[in-house]
Amino acid sequence: MDHSLLDRLKSLGVQVGTSQVKKPGKSSDRVPIDKVIDGTEHTTPFGSAFLADERFPTDYQHGLIPFNQTVDFSLLGEWAGYPTLNEKPADQFIFLDTETTGLAGGTGTFAFMIGLGWWQADGFRLQQFFLREPAEETAVLAALDEVLTPFQTVVTYNGKSFDIPLLNARHILSAFQSPFPGMKHVDLLALSRRIWRNRLPSRSLGSIEHDILAVSRSEEEIPGWMIPEMYFNYLKSGDSRPMAGVFYHNRIDILSLAALFLHQSNLLSSPMDWLSTEGLDLIAIAKLYDETGRRDQAVQLYEHSLSLGLPRPFFIQTLYRYADLARKELSFNQAVNLWQKAADVQELPACVELAKYYEHQAREYETALYWTQKAFEILDTQAQPLYLKKLMQSELQKRQARLQRKLNNRGSYTGPVGPEEDTHEQS
Questions:
Q1: CA atoms within 13 A on the CB side of 146
Q2: CB 68: neighbour CB atoms within 10 A?
Q3: pLDDT at residue 7 in the model
């Protein structure tokens, strides 16, 4: 290079040559995982996998949840489509959570850490397999399959949509048969959404453990969105020290998953023991009871929730659900009472339901006409699209005219109303 050009480049601050280039992979930068995490080599026919193995005593408590309690899993199993769940011993459930190179899925995404937890006679055991490099994936999958062999049920959080399909795909790419199709699967995310969607803005596992389980993570915690990049940085640098936070994150996820499994089972089997002051949670469980045919239990929860006082949208929603349940049970007096409470707060659909009842069930046409007129009055005060308003006005006018005809004909005919007069409304 021309010396004048070299001098000019240096004067501009441009580094010339290789003396300033940091050489990758210096031994002083590389810190192997076994220097950071207490673990062992798990040997398989396909090579070795790094394994961290931890045990928690029988009296371990995760947040508010003791791990040594006796729990009825029957309703949880019924909800999950697994009616024999309660017949299985607790040591046949395995809890699984993965840390991956991304959330997009596809063949380029793999699980570089697989956390597993299960109950034993002497407490709770937690194992974490870690890929020190991608070439170890076959060994880790083989080790995973060995651990899963005795278990019949896998429990996850969003595992049906992410963890299990990802692991199934990795098994296929490694020419292994996945063990998961032969296992029962309980995914707690959907139930968490059902129970806490009225009260919690987020139903992520982190939010559930903080707001419901009362678990506080330490300063070791690593936010989930950072984890894939941290692993790629580890692969580049060989420095595994930042991975300690990832191990901690995964460990707490597994413990929270097991605690949530116990807690949700308790909530479904005896909600009043755990949620007597949480009306929003109780109405969510009441709906689950109603859907599974446990209507007496649903009634108790609806009544208790209404007595607690609910925000207006949930109060109205609960009145309608409870009234609909009462109507299905032919408890019309109870349904009428609930519709009247809704009508008292200017609910037009409740007035319509009352008009239906007094026309078709009680045959009290004057009262049916009163509730129809009440519906007109409420409709006049509501702001809604004009076409919807006109449609409702038309329906109410038809009802009003029909009722007036019935009242006019009452003197000459008092028997059951013929089908020709009820063609507009029987539902």
A1: 15
A2: 13
A3: 56
Burial class (CB in 10 A: 0-12, 13-18, 19+), 75: buried
The DSSP code for 152 is S
419 pLDDT more than 70: no
Domain boundaries, the chain: 33-269, 275-409
Q: What CATH code would you report for 33-269?
A: 3.30.420.10
Domain covering 275-409 in this structure, CATH number = 1.25.40.10
pLDDT digits (tens, 9 = 90+) for 271-292: 999 999 999 999 999 999 999 8
- Helix (H/G/I), strand (E/B), else coil: 191: helix
Task: Please state, in angstroms and rounded to a whole number, the distance separating the CA atoms of residues 336 and 342.
Answer: 10
Give the torsion through C-alpha atoms of 381, 386, 387, 390, to 10 deg.
50
Sign of CA dihedral 331, 288, 286, 86: positive
3-state secondary structure of 300: helix
Of 120, 123, 55, 54, the residue nearest 91 (C-alpha): 120
What residues contact 180, with CB distance under 8 A and at least 6 apart?
A: 154, 164, 167, 168
* The pair of three-digit structure tokens given for residue 270, joined into one six-digit string: 């005896």
Long-range contacts from 170-177, C-beta under 8 angstroms, 24+ separation: 170/110, 170/111, 170/137, 170/141, 171/141, 173/107, 174/137, 174/138, 174/141, 176/138, 176/141, 176/142, 176/145
For residues 424 and 400, the answer to whether their CB atoms sit within 8 Å is no
- Percentage helix, strand, coil for the chain under 3-state DSSP, each rounded to 5: 55, 15, 30
CA distance 35 to 185: 36
DSSP bridge partners of 123:
120
Q: What value does the CA radius of gyration of the chain take, rounded to a whole number of Å?
A: 32
Q: Which residues contact 135 (CB under 8 A, 6 or more apart)?
A: none
Q: Is pLDDT larger for residue 379 or for residue 420?
A: 379
Number of helices and strands in the chain (H, E): 16, 9
Going by C-alpha positions, the residue among 247, 255, 224, 232 that lies closest to residue 39 is 247
Closest CA to 306 of 328, 337, 327: 337
- Supply angle C-alpha 163, 165, 168, rounded to 5: 105
